[in-house]
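Module 6 notes. Inverse folding takes a fixed backbone as the condition and produces residue identities as the prediction. Think of it as a translation problem where the source language is geometry and the target language is the twenty amino acids. Below is one complete input and output pair. Work through it position by position during the lab.
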C-alpha cells in the first residue's frame, strides 16, 4: 500500500480488506496507519466509526465461520482481538478474547495445542479488573485455578510446583479483589438509585419551596461517588492508551 494514500482512502482500503475477509497482518498494519494522526478530533471520529463498523462485521463473520476449522476460527478471533485493541474498543477486545479462551478450552481435549494455560487466564483477569469488568475477572480467576488443578501432577518439591504455588496465591488475591470490587460496584449502583429516589421524594414533599432542599450528607456522599467514578474513568483511559501503544 502506498504511503501517499489519504486517510479516507486508507479507511476504504481497510474496509475492502475486511469485506474480502483478509484477516492478516497487512490488514492490521493498514489499521495502524489509519490511526496515526495528530488531529485529535479526527482520531476520535475515526475510532468511533471503526468501532461501529468492526462490531457489525464481527457478528457477520462469526456466523460465516461456523463451518470453518478450529484453527481458522482461532485466527479470526485473534485478529478481531487485536483490531479492537488498536481502535480502543477495550470492552469488545476483552469480550472476544474471553470467547476465544473459552473456545480453546472447549476444543483442547482433542487439540492439545489449544490448551489454555493458567497464566493466560491470569493475564486476562488482570486486564479485566483494571478495566472495571469485575465479574468476568472473577470467573477468569476460577478458570485459572482449574487450569492449575488440571496440570498439578508435578513433584511438590520441584521448582515448577513452587512457581505454581506463587501463582495460586496471586490468583486468589486477584479473585478476592474482583469479588470485593464487584460487590462495591453493585452497592454504588444501588446507592445512586436510592439517592435519586430520595431526591424525587423531597421534590414532591416540599412543593412550595422555591429551591430544592438537599441533605448536606447526601450531597457529600454523591460528590464522593462522582469523584471516585471520575478517578476510575481516568484509570481506564490511561490503561487504554497503554494497551494501544
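Target side of the pair, the amino acids:
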Amino acid at each position: 500500500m502506498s504511503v501517499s494514500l489519504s486517510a479516507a482512502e486508507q479507511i476504504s482500503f481497510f474496509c475492502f480488506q475486511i469485506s474480502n475477509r483478509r484477516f492478516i497482518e497487512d490488514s492490521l498494519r493498514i489499521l495502524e496507519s489509519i490511526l496515526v494522526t495528530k488531529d485529535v478530533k479526527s482520531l476520535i471520529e475515526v475510532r468511533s466509526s471503526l468501532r461501529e463498523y468492526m462490531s457489525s462485521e464481527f457478528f457477520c463473520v462469526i456466523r460465516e465461520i461456523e463451518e470453518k476449522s478450529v484453527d481458522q476460527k482461532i485466527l479470526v478471533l485473534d485478529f478481531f482481538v487485536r483490531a479492537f485493541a488498536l481502535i480502543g474498543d477495550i470492552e469488545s477486545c476483552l469480550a472476544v478474547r474471553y470467547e476465544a479462551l473459552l473456545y480453546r478450552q472447549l476444543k483442547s481435549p482433542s487439540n492439545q495445542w489449544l490448551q489454555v494455560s493458567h497464566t493466560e487466564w491470569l493475564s486476562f483477569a488482570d486486564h479485566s479488573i483494571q478495566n472495571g469488568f469485575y465479574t468476568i475477572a472473577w470467573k477468569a480467576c476460577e478458570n485459572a485455578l482449574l487450569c492449575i488443578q488440571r496440570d498439578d501432577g508435578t513433584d511438590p518439591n520441584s521448582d515448577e510446583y513452587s512457581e505454581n504455588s506463587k501463582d495460586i496465591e496471586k490468583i486468589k488475591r486477584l479473585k478476592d479483589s474482583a469479588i470485593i470490587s464487584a460487590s462495591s460496584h453493585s452497592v454504588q449502583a444501588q446507592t445512586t438509585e436510592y439517592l435519586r429516589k430520595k431526591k424525587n421524594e423531597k421534590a414532591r414533599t416540599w412543593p412550595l419551596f422555591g429551591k430544592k432542599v438537599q441533605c448536606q450528607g447526601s450531597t457529600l456522599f454523591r460528590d464522593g461517588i462522582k469523584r471516585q467514578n471520575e478517578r476510575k474513568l481516568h484509570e481506564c483511559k490511561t490503561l487504554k492508551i497503554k494497551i494501544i501503544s
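Reference fact for the lab report: Residues 202-221 have pLDDT under 50 and may be disordered.
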